[in-house]
Amino acid sequence: MPRFSIIVPSHGVAGRLSQALDSVLAQSFGDLELIPVCDGPDAPAAAVAAGHAERDSRVAPVHSPPSAGLSGARNAGLRAARGAYLLFLDGDDVLVPGALARLAARLSETGDVDVLYFEHERVPWWEGEPANPAAPLLAGTPRGAFAPAEAPALTGVALPAWSAAWRRAFVTDARLRFPDGHFTDVGWSGLAGIAAERLAVLRSVVVRHRLRRQGSRLNLPGAHQHELLDQVELVLARSRAAGLPPDRARPLFGQLFEVVLRTAARPGRLPFGRRAFFRRAGSLHRAHRPAGFRTPGGSLGVQHRLLAAGAYTAFRALRGANRAAGRLPRPRLPLTRLRYALDLRRPLDENLAVFCAYWGRGYTCNPAAIHAVARRLAPWVRSVFLVEAGQEHTVPADVEYAVIGGRRYWQLLARAKYLVNNANFAEGVVKRPGSVHLQTQHGTPLKKMGVDQATYPVVAAQTGSFAKLLGRVDRWDFNLSANRHSTQTWERAFPGSYETLEYGYPRNDVYYAASPRDVVRARRALGVPDGATAVLYAPTHRDHRTGFEPGLDLEAFCEEAGEDVVVLLRAHYFYDRGVLAGGGRVIDVTAHRSAEDVCLAADALITDYSSIMFDYANLDRPIVVYADDWEVYRETRGVCFDLMAEPPGPVARTPEELARIFREGAYRSAESTRLRAAFRARFCEFDDGLAAERVVRRIFLGQPPESLPPLIPLAERLPAPAATVFVRS
Q1: What is the pTM of this model?
Q2: What is the rounded average pLDDT for all residues in the chain?
Q3: How far apart are CA 431 and CA 446, in angstroms?
Q4: Distance, CA of 478 to chain centre
Q5: pLDDT digits over 390-445, tens only?
Q6: In 3D, which of 671, 695, 536, 521 has the Cα closest to residue 605?
Q7: CA dihedral 352, 355, 360, 364 (to 10 degrees)
Q8: Do residues 260 and 229 lie in contact, with contact meaning Cβ atoms separated by under 8 Å?
Q9: 260 and 228 in contact (C-beta within 8 Å)?
Q10: Is 360 left (phi over 0), alpha (psi -120 to 50) or beta?
Q11: Residue 86: is it exposed, middle or buried by C-beta count within 10 angstroms (0-12/13-18/19+)?
């Protein structure tokens, strides 16, 4: 019995079928059977399949008449399959290299599971960037095999049949088959999700789905759109008959009706029978709504309520209002969307500035530093900081703020003359003539950024549309840089018509303004014992991993590095849990609001590839690079330069080597100082403590470049001293 049976329907794709079949037969894992399903022995695809069968005994074509449709073709393949696991592949899609080997390895880890879901890549037919829509759906699921109740949001409905491997014995025992008609994937995935008892996830792309120029038939107008409700009713009825617990029934119901409402809200898909579609969908909604189901927020929630009430006229009016508002703004509520469109017609407020950092994570980074100086040098400008709900506490008491997503938030964005951000404003924010958008960035790049990521599949899949990214770049008027390396990288990664301001990073000004008293205060606020050597450990995010992994046994490091060493652990901001934690000699400072205070408190830095090394170098304190997976990181994420050839200090490849560097004092040796000096000369080029003032004078005061404070030479800059310089004395 082969490990895998790959079933490939081929109707209408004879011209591309060879690529699909070749992608299977070229797999390094060869324990498989390949089942092309052709319309008949005389069909164009049959000759292609027969040619492959002559060359490879693993190919076993079967036939299914075109009238049976996609469901009939897949069911024909099911009846012929002998493999332990079933995979479905559309005839114009391909398996990525090494896919079956990864599936086999994952199944060896998890043992037999009913369904193994995996990621897939959607590739535009001509121009555009690939997307990985399955990745967010699979994120956060348990690491090993798990019961459906452990990840109730993973119902399978949102995934096509070719985004999973199905255990054949499970399919047989559950008497699963593809339901007749269109939208058969909805029916199959829903029924399988209800019946499955043991699941697993592979967070890796297996199938490359190539979109067709003419688009999917399922998105085209026609009577077949009504068949969606047949599949939904089938799944809901099976869910009720199976006694699916409410915790599982609720997400299944929500995801099914998200698909239904997507169709109902697009009148182009329903050239006739719209009211009948709406009426039947409403009846299903009322009949099958599980106990405790909470209507989602925003416009989708409004649509749910109107559907449940059978209010077709109001639903049609809402649909029309959404179309009238256009695609520009993305407020959550329909009324807010309409108000935003009206506010865009009002004059700009010449004395209003809006600031945001890290998508609203709090009052921090370059925007906060610019905000503070703007209040001093341009007090007539009303400055408002944007934060997401739950982060209001990060804003100082005397700073005006607005919560992202609310009515006031969109009103401010519509009227503000100045918009300052270290990431990007929401997709729907309109760049108005006369407004000034300043992109401050939030670090010097070591890893590939922007469109440079396109050739790195792992990160490109997470980036989304590069066309949309460049659309956001087109809103920038100014882009901030801390060194010429950044200037060149930004110009390549974010091509646009903005002006680059080589003024330094405002958040780094504090490293030259802080006093010894500020350093002591920062250490005591973090719980660093007096007389201790505080080593900041700041690893970066790994795009090829899920969740935070320290990568180092920190308690063991402290024991080996020296009796006075304590570690300040600062994970990437993606993993900020919102609480400070400490105990023993390892203090978790990830949730501390100010990265600058953490750096001031540290006597030395250990990092891998985090951009914090460029900021910390301003303090002229020891830096050690812990590069245990440099080759993997370089190949999966991509880098702008070879850090191993130009490090800011000693490089360690193993935990033992890292501890020895500190135990023997090599981290502060003459060679370490030499490496750091060269690093600072290249990457701390424009950071001299006056960056925020330059920005405010240029942007808010309109002063010409020649009147701004001149750059202080590197040799004349005086960074804040480390605690070891003055505390022990």
Answers
A1: 0.56
A2: 89
A3: 30
A4: 25
A5: 889 989 999 999 999 888 999 999 999 999 999 989 888 999 999 999 999 999 99
A6: 536
A7: -140
A8: yes
A9: yes
A10: left
A11: buried
Cα dist. 694→322, 357, 688, 698 in Å? 43, 19, 11, 6
Residue 98 CB burial class (10 angstroms; 0-12, 13-18, ≥19): middle
Asked if residues 83 and 170 have their Cβ atoms less than 8 Å apart, the reply is no
- Give the CA dihedral 44, 48, 51, 52, nearest 10 degrees: -150
Helix (H) or strand (E) holding 535: strand 533-538
In the numeric block, which tokens belong to residue 313?
């006229």
pLDDT(545) > 70? no
Residue 641 φ/ψ, nearest 5 degrees:
-155, 165
CA-CA distance, 284 to 255, in Å (whole number)?
A: 14
Q: In what order do the strands lie in the sheet with 436-439?
A: 400-403, 382-387, 349-356, 416-421, 436-439, 478-480, 499-501
Provide the angle, in degrees to the nearest 10, between the axes of the packed helices 334-343 and 407-415: 20
Q: What's phi and psi for 446, nearest 5 deg? A: -105, -45
DSSP 616-649: HGGGT--EEEE-TTHHHHHHHT-BSS-TTTS-SS
Q: Which helix (H) or strand (E) holds 676?
A: helix 670-683
User: In this predicted model, which residue has the larger pLDDT, 701 or 274?
Assistant: 701
Side-chain-facing half-sphere of 693: CA atoms under 13 Å: 13
Please give the structure tokens belonging to residue 269: 């898909």
Helices (H), ranges, 111-226: 134-138, 168-173, 184-195
Length of the chain (residues):
729
3-class state of residue 615 by DSSP? helix
CA-to-CA dists, residue 543 to 12, 106, 141, 549, angstroms:
37, 19, 16, 12
Task: Transcribe 330-385 into DSSP letters.
Answer: --SSHHHHHHHHHHTTSPPEEEEEEEE-GGGT-S-HHHHHHHHHHHHH-TTSEEEE
Q: How far apart are CA 218 and CA 556, in angstroms?
A: 57
Residue 36 near residue 44 (C-beta atoms within 8 A): no
pLDDT for the residue numbered 442: 93
The CA radius of gyration of the chain, in Å to the nearest whole number, is 29
Provide the sign of the torsion angle of the four alpha carbons 709, 714, 715, 721, taken in this order: positive
One-letter identity of residue 614: F
* Sequence letter at residue 452: D
Could you report the per-residue pLDDT of 250-305, keeping only the tens digit for each?
Answer: 999 999 999 999 888 887 888 888 899 999 999 999 999 999 998 887 778 888 98
Bridge partners of residue 565, in order along the sequence: 533
